[in-house]
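Q: what sequence does this backbone want?
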């Protein structure tokens, strides 16, 4: 599923500048003016998985699409009571 290890560490305290730098390193390169650069959908899902489920999360399914389903399910189950809904 996730083939690259992040350059960050679990216990490292990142500030907003560090987060922006890391996220931009995951995005496509190029000049997009005042707008953020695009990011491939799978890269985004992998980053959200790392952020919400942890570096050690893994799955045994056969494809990225199946893994994405598991990731979304796990995130929603884990955080369903932690989101303020109106």
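A:
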């Amino acid at each position: 599923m996730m083939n690259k290890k992040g350059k960050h560490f679990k216990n490292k305290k990142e500030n907003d500048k560090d987060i922006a730098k890391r996220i931009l390193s995951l995005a496509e390169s190029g000049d997009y003016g005042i707008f953020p650069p695009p990011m491939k959908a799978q890269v985004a899902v992998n980053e959200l998985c790392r952020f919400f489920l942890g570096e050690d999360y893994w799955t045994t399914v056969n494809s990225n699409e199946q893994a994405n389903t598991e990731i979304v399910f796990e995130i929603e189950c884990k955080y369903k009571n932690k989101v303020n809904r109106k």
